[in-house]
């Protein structure tokens, strides 16, 4: 089953009568299934998604007779550093890989070590994950093929058993192969050929002479890692990240803390998320129809997560209350709707929609009620409804708002029914308008971790300090930012004295590649700089947040011709840019709306650095991975140029002794550091291509998939990007980059409706390097997943309220390791550097 169990669900949905036969084959190891639900891309999904994928896959495999207990991911486009720790916590002793292994590994087995010290013995497939595919069934021919395959593997110094995988993508099992293998042994000298399962091979795999490797595996030395998949079909990656964040860090924690049972909805959302984790789906390296289905699954997961979050939040926070999604105290800005602007609040530009108007025949009075119900379903609250007759017309006027109490509609419905049947009434006119309330920006007080506090109370004192927008400049106590007419930024970080010039410079270039790899086009020329379309103008003036808006236009070739050279005629990329800065923040937020009318090109934002940099640090699954600043290179014999376009989950940071710059993005996963005395950090925004695979690339030899056109991957139309620049002192850890990224991606949520009383539940974790990566609801409590995001051993302090709980430490597979002593919900535990820890928190009967 190629390491997956989702295939079982698909198969049995069509052939349910085959369940007993399938289970018998699995139980007797005639078919090996799992451990994954879907084979994931490991860099484009969260660490928590990897864990849930294995949990779902192992559970489903066990339902059918047993699971292959090995970290089987041969075709993923590289492997993060923490995979050995994840595997060990699931009880695996082995991993199986092909892509990403560097030249330093010269054996068919090596010891792969995670940053926390966990190790797995890893089988390396050497020449391919399909090096035993389509074997001849003639005994002599089969023996000759095996001899050739062993010769190809000779550089890896094979000892003992050698693995040849008899399969490939879209290939059926070979009938009669065991008999052919037995006959071929008569033609082999010193070699015995046997058809076996992968589990049997791994059980016999020895660690003798196995070299060690520490960290991620992303080398192109022997196999393509197809790094261009990080930036193809970007809108789909953005939608997937938003759905995952909403599910993992809003819906689940809110369900856990509120005690509302949403298990069925959450499971359904996870099904969509895990199906979209499949590596070609997550990468976008497929046909357009696959991308369209993926888009629907992300939308479904987000809708379910939003519904769960909204329902559970109502149990914790009402009108004038807010919930902090992070396990550490936070204050921040939230938008609320008010009738009277509270002290210290900032009124936002008027965004009230125009009134909605409807006209119905009087006998269709039921449609009036339907219109009012639609407002309620859309999330608006009806404050007032008035019905008045004007001659032959009954006029119904309703006023709505987004928050606060709603009126009881029973009385107004009766009035409308009574008036509609009066003699002479022929028509009903309905007008629905937003009330006179205003949207304002307010600053919350400090909110405890994963808890609730009141906001926007009258009499609240405003704090000193402000941010302002004047002309083309934003400024607060930490930053001064000037927006140039071409859309670039000059930023002074006052604490470090560093001045950054030319930030966010948009650069476009032709792309003659495919969904797998970027490839420059022959005959491409330097583009003119962006042309100003409007002068920078202040959109928000403070005191809590200030913003500047501008727009520019890039003129680029309209695409590539049949000769794969840029066309002479041009197209426009129009860019609407907004830059905002909050009071007391060293984080500059950027939103862009880009309308793309060109094909076959790559658009990036560049950030020149005012210091030298030899290392970038980017977050991956349960880790921040350091990578050297290098130029593109190709190892001898490699089919692929190794571009230093690297993956990040949400941030990349570069720094020196005085300070540094982090770029934090929402669903933009590809970055590159262009070397130089003053290096430039490049963030890929769009990569527009029209082919799944081509064989005429400058940066890759041969095809990487079927040569099919994918017009949907050209990404014509309007796209939105959101990212921020964090200016800090020290390195990424001392500069608080991880928590800043969490604050950017996980906003404080304002409640609505009836105010919730009582003591709110909370989860608070110290020190700052201890991250909460999941809070998973159960009927009697929840699971907390923690990470020590530090190179040093740490003692974590976890404070849980209400405090009458039992806490157990367990592995990712759910095996209990120890009970953690706690006093009034407070416990301490030691974590190794980069260790992942799961705590099972059970409420006792008094706190339930």
Q: Main β-sheet: number of strands, strand sense, barrel status?
A: 9 strands, antiparallel
What is the tally of helical segments? 14
Q: Please tell me what the overall shape is.
A: globular
Task: List the strand order in the largest sheet.
Answer: 21-22-23-24-33-30-29-26-27
N-C termini distance: 43 Å
* Rounded Rg: 30 Å
Please state the structural category: alpha+beta
Poorly predicted runs are none
Short description:
By secondary structure, the protein is of the alpha+beta class. It is built from 14 helices and 42 strands. The strands form 9 sheets. The protein has a 9-stranded antiparallel beta sheet, covered by helices on one side.
Can you give a write-up of this model?
A hairpin with a 4-residue loop joins strand 18 and strand 19. The longest helix has 29 residues. The protein has a nine-stranded antiparallel β-sheet with strand order 21-22-23-24-33-30-29-26-27, covered by helices on one side. A five-stranded mixed β-sheet has the order 1-2-4-3-5. It starts with 5 loop residues before the first helix and ends in a 5-residue tail after the last strand. With 848 residues, it is of the alpha+beta class. The protein contains 14 helices and 42 strands.
């Amino acid at each position: 089953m190629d390491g997956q169990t989702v295939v079982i669900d698909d198969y049995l949905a069509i052939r349910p009568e085959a369940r007993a036969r399938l289970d018998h084959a699995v139980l007797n190891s005639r078919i090996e299934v799992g451990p994954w639900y879907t084979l994931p891309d490991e860099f484009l999904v969260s660490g928590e998604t990897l864990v849930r994928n294995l949990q779902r896959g192992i559970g489903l495999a066990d339902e059918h007779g047993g699971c292959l207990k090995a970290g089987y991911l041969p075709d993923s486009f590289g492997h993060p550093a923490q995979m050995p720790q994840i595997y060990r916590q699931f009880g695996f002793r082995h991993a199986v890989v092909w892509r990403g292994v560097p030249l330093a590994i010269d054996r068919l087995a090596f010891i792969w070590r995670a940053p926390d010290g966990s190790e797995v013995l890893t089988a390396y497939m050497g020449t391919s994950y399909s090096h035993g595919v389509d074997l001849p069934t003639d005994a002599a021919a089969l023996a000759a093929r095996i001899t050739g395959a062993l010769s190809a593997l000779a550089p890896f110094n094979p000892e003992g058993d050698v693995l040849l995988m008899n399969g490939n993508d879209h290939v059926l099992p070979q009938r009669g192969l065991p008999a052919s293998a037995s006959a071929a042994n008569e033609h082999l000298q010193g070699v015995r050929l046997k058809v076996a399962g992968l589990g049997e091979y791994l059980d016999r795999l020895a660690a003798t002479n196995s070299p060690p490797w520490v960290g991620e595996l992303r080398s192109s030395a022997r196999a393509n890692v197809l790094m261009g998949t990080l930036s193809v079909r970007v809108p789909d990656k953005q939608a997937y990240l938003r759905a995952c964040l909403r599910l993992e860090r809003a819906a689940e924690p809110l369900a856990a803390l509120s005690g509302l049972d949403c298990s069925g909805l959450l499971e359904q959302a996870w099904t969509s998320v895990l199906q979209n984790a499949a590596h070609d789906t997550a990468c976008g390296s497929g046909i357009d129809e696959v991308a369209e289905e993926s888009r629907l699954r992300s939308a479904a997961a987000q809708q379910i997560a939003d519904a769960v979050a909204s329902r559970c939040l109502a149990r914790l926070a009402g009108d004038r209350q807010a919930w902090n999604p992070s396990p550490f105290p936070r204050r921040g800005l939230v938008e609320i709707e008010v009738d009277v602007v509270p002290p210290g609040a900032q009124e936002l530009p008027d965004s009230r929609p125009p009134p909605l108007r409807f006209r119905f025949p009087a006998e269709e009075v039921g449609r009036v009620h339907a219109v009012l119900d639609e407002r309620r379903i859309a999330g608006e609250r009806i404050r007032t409804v008035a019905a008045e007759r004007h001659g032959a017309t009954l006029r119904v006027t309703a006023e709505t708002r987004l928050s606060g109490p709603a009126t009881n509609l029973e009385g107004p419905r009766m009035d409308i029914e009574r008036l509609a049947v009066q003699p002479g009434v022929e028509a009903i006119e309905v007008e629905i308008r937003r009330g006179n309330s205003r949207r304002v920006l307010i600053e919350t007080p400090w909110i405890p971790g994963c808890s609730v506090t009141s906001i926007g109370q009258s009499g609240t004192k405003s704090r000193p300090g402000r941010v302002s927008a004047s002309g083309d400049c934003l400024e607060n106590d930490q930053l001064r930012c000037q927006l140039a007419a071409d859309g670039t930024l000059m930023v002074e970080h006052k604490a470090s004295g560093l001045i950054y010039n030319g930030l966010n410079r948009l650069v476009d270039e032709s792309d003659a590649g495919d969904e797998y790899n970027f490839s420059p086009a022959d005959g491409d020329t330097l583009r003119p700089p962006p042309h100003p379309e409007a002068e920078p103008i202040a959109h928000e003036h403070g005191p809590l947040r200030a913003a500047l808006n501008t727009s520019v236009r890039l003129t680029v070739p309209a695409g590539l011709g049949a000769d794969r050279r840029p066309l002479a005629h041009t197209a426009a990329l129009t860019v609407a840019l907004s830059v905002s800065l909050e009071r007391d923040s060293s984080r500059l937020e950027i939103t862009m709306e880009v309308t793309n009318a060109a094909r076959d090109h790559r658009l990036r934002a560049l950030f020149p650095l005012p210091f030298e940099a030899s290392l970038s640090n980017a977050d991956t699954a349960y880790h921040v991975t350091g990578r050297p600043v290098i130029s593109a290179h190709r190892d001898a014999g490699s089919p692929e140029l190794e571009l230093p376009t690297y993956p990040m989950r949400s941030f990349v940071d570069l720094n020196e002794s005085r300070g540094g710059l982090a770029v934090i993005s929402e669903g933009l996963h590809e970055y590159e550091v262009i070397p130089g005395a003053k290096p430039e950090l490049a963030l890929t925004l769009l990569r527009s291509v029209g082919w799944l695979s081509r064989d005429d690339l400058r940066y890759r030899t041969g095809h990487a998939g079927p040569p099919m056109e994918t017009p949907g991957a050209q990404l014509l139309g309007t796209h939105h990007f959101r990212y921020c620049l964090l200016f800090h002192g020290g390195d990424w850890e001392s500069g608080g980059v991880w928590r800043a990224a969490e604050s950017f991606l996980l906003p404080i949520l304002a409640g609505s409706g009836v105010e919730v009383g009582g003591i709110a539940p909370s989860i608070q974790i110290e020190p700052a390097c201890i991250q909460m990566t999941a809070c998973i609801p159960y009927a009697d409590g929840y699971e907390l997943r923690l990470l020590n995001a530090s190179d040093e051993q740490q003692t974590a302090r976890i404070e849980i309220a209400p405090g009458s709980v039992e806490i157990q430490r367990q592995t990712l597979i759910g095996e209990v390791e120890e009970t953690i002593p706690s006093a009034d919900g407070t416990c301490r535990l030691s974590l190794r550097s980069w260790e992942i820890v799961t705590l099972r928190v059970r409420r006792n009967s008094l706190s339930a």
